[in-house]
Write a structure and sequence with these properties.
Length: 158
């Protein structure tokens, strides 16, 4: 009976040891993976558009934060870092152009992708202004999923 207890106890210790190291290895991998994710801030007053962009880019492995207007985006950027800001041009209160100018001044290394579906003037006019003021790339709404992913990947060198 002592032999059985000794074997069972030894096997349990080995199992616990292996299980512990397996979890340690897995959690280290997850942490490395999370650290390598690019952080993207999506700024758009249209909730459905923000959620659509979030879904598309999270499937690609990006970490996404959202802001519903320029003021919320500014607050986020002062408290957190973002590798990329995706910003709609036409928004109430603080519009996308103001976000682009402020981001470029205060966070010059942050990439900017501006979006527009137009308005009183064409989307191309809005996006030309955005590029002139510091947006790295532009995208006209509506866009295809793969167009968004290609632009984001190219801006983040993925």
């Amino acid at each position: 009976m002592n032999t059985f207890f000794f074997r069972k106890n030894t096997q349990s210790k080995i199992s616990v040891f292996l299980l512990f190291h397996w979890f340690r290895i897995c959690s280290t991998f997850e942490i490395k993976n999370m650290d390598s994710q690019s952080h993207i801030l999506v700024v758009d007053d249209d909730t459905q558009m923000r959620q659509t962009i979030r879904t598309i880019l999270e499937e690609e492995g990006y970490h996404i934060a959202e802001a519903c207007d320029g003021n919320e985006a500014s607050g986020y950027l002062h408290r957190n870092t973002a590798d990329l800001v995706i910003v709609d041009i036409i928004m109430p209160d603080k519009d996308g152009i103001e976000v682009i100018v402020e981001t470029r001044e205060k966070f010059p290394d942050t990439k900017i992708l501006s979006l527009s579906g137009g308005g009183l003037i064409t989307a191309n006019d809005h996006l030309s202004s955005a590029e002139a003021l510091g947006a790295n790339q532009t995208l006209i709404k509506p866009f295809k999923n793969n167009e968004l992913v290609e632009k984001v990947n190219s801006l983040l060198d993925n």
